[in-house]
Automatic annotation (TrEMBL):
<dbReference type="InterPro" id="IPR017927">
    <property type="entry name" value="FAD-bd_FR_type"/>
</dbReference>
<dbReference type="InterPro" id="IPR008333">
    <property type="entry name" value="Cbr1-like_FAD-bd_dom"/>
</dbReference>
<protein>
    <submittedName>
        <fullName>NAD(P)H-flavin reductase</fullName>
    </submittedName>
</protein>
<dbReference type="InterPro" id="IPR017938">
    <property type="entry name" value="Riboflavin_synthase-like_b-brl"/>
</dbReference>
<dbReference type="InterPro" id="IPR050415">
    <property type="entry name" value="MRET"/>
</dbReference>
<dbReference type="GO" id="GO:0051537">
    <property type="term" value="F:2 iron, 2 sulfur cluster binding"/>
</dbReference>
<dbReference type="GO" id="GO:0016491">
    <property type="term" value="F:oxidoreductase activity"/>
</dbReference>
<keyword id="KW-0479">Metal-binding</keyword>
<dbReference type="InterPro" id="IPR001709">
    <property type="entry name" value="Flavoprot_Pyr_Nucl_cyt_Rdtase"/>
</dbReference>
<dbReference type="Pfam" id="PF00970">
    <property type="entry name" value="FAD_binding_6"/>
</dbReference>
<dbReference type="InterPro" id="IPR009050">
    <property type="entry name" value="Globin-like_sf"/>
</dbReference>
<keyword id="KW-0408">Iron</keyword>
<dbReference type="InterPro" id="IPR012292">
    <property type="entry name" value="Globin/Proto"/>
</dbReference>
<keyword id="KW-0411">Iron-sulfur</keyword>
<feature type="domain" description="FAD-binding FR-type">
    <location>
        <begin position="129"/>
        <end position="238"/>
    </location>
</feature>
<dbReference type="InterPro" id="IPR039261">
    <property type="entry name" value="FNR_nucleotide-bd"/>
</dbReference>
<dbReference type="InterPro" id="IPR001433">
    <property type="entry name" value="OxRdtase_FAD/NAD-bd"/>
</dbReference>
């Protein structure tokens, strides 16, 4: 059989037209759960899940998006047959010479399987914030390979500091990546994302180097990834941030600043060299604004020109500043998380005080993940962030759409 991804790539090259055809196919058959303005998002995301290629984290991000759309739009089992047929017909129509008849069976079966996976994701996530669209209002170069994107969503995002959400640029439809807001919710609704362009990345270089103010981004639902502040109770905090793992830590510091709970926070920010450190001015301002309870510590793993006190890898410096009773949070690269998972308990950090960001790079512990989502929903409800009342069925889709 021919490569099934080639026809999809051709369809996504004209994804607005392809999505219109996909939506019209279902509309003609009275399957009307999907608002037309969200058809490009649904079509491209479903297509990527069917082909099953890409990194594990990106695939799970796509499933989170499909799961939330499945639940909020009221996608029922009997819709699956028409959705699968619509996908196969759309890919065939836009694939040109790359289409072969046996691909129809591949796409129809793949769609039905993807919809079943989306239903399982929907059950785990429950009700909550919907997908939306945001306009990029600022792109600031924080370093040679790091950009801070400020986004104004069409609908106010519902999230807690420390959570992460899938983000996608229509330049690469259906290719979702996880990013954490770098700020607590603001009155104006804007959100900052810290993005590093990875040398082998398919999406991050586009977000850093090509996306400009005025463009739109697709934004998926925020979910708990193990960095919820509520899990720490009223304990003091030690926050260890590697690279752009600084983003959710910044949001947690803002949450502490607005909280009535008095606690001390040590924020350890790791970088390879002084030149690799980004957001240094903002860190200095953060320290000065909250000097009575916040201590910012820098850690440079490969820079012998800085003072000895800040030389060392992130975890070594963080352990030096760790005190009994602190809740220990770590966010950064998947490699950093894996090392922290092995090293910190051996170094004496109590397992119940250790909070590591999920990387989605390996099979999820389903029970733990589901438990996290239920806990996060309970916290959102107590804080007035519960959005279940906005409606979950097709009769509510005009308000759910961006």
């Amino acid at each position: 059989m021919a490569d099934p991804e080639a026809p999809l790539e051709m369809a996504l090259a004209a994804h607005d037209l392809a999505a219109d055809h996909f939506w019209s196919y279902m509309e003609d058959r009275s399957v009307r759960f999907l608002p037309q303005q969200l058809a490009p998002m649904f079509f491209s995301t479903l297509g990527r899940v069917v082909t099953g290629r890409g990194d594990p984290a990106g695939r799970r991000a796509a499933l989170a998006v499909l799961g939330r759309m499945h639940r909020r739009f009221g996608l029922y089992p009997y819709h699956g047959t028409v959705v699968a047929a619509a996908m196969a017909d759309t890919v065939r129509r836009f694939s040109g010479a790359s289409w072969e008849p046996e691909l129809a069976t591949y796409w129809e079966r793949g769609c039905r399987r993807a919809i079943r996976l989306a239903e399982r994701a929907a059950e785990a996530m429950g009700d909550g914030p919907h997908v939306t669209v945001g306009e990029v209002v600022a792109c600031d170069a924080a370093a040679d390979d790091v950009a801070v994107l400020t986004v104004r969503p069409m609908r106010r995002l519902r999230y807690l500091p420390g959570q992460a959400m899938p983000v996608c640029t229509p330049r690469l439809p259906g290719q979702w990546r996880w990013y954490s807001p770098a700020n607590a919710p603001r009155p104006d609704g804007t959100v900052d994302f810290h993005i590093r362009a990875l040398a082998d990345g398919a999406v991050s270089p586009v977000l850093v180097e090509r996306v400009a103010p005025g463009e739109l981004l697709w934004l998926g639902p925020a979910i708990d990834v193990g960095l919820s502040l509520e899990a720490a109770g009223e304990a003091d905090l030690l926050l260890a941030a590697g690279g752009t793992g600084l983003a959710p830590m910044r949001a947690l510091v803002e949450q502490v600043a607005a909280s009535p709970i008095n606690r001390r926070v040590t924020l350890v920010v790791g970088s390879r060299t002084l030149l690799d450190l980004y957001d240094a001015v903002a860190l200095d301002e953060l320290q000065q604004a909250h000097a009575d309870w916040l201590t910012v510590v820098l850690a440079f793993s490969d820079d012998r020109d800085v003072e000895p006190a800040v030389q060392g890898d992130l975890l070594s410096v963080a352990l030096y500043h760790h005190r009994a009773g602190q809740a220990f949070y770590v966010c950064g690269s998947p490699r950093l998380i894996e090392v922290a998972r092995e090293r910190l308990p051996v170094a004496g950090v109590a397992p119940d005080s250790l909070h590591l960001a999920a990387t989605f790079q390996r099979a999820l512990d389903s029970a733990l993940w589901v438990s996290r989502q239920r806990s996060a929903r309970a916290v959102e409800a107590t804080l007035g962030l519960d959005t279940a009342a906005e409606g979950t069925g097709p009769d509510r889709t005009p308000r759910d759409a961006p």
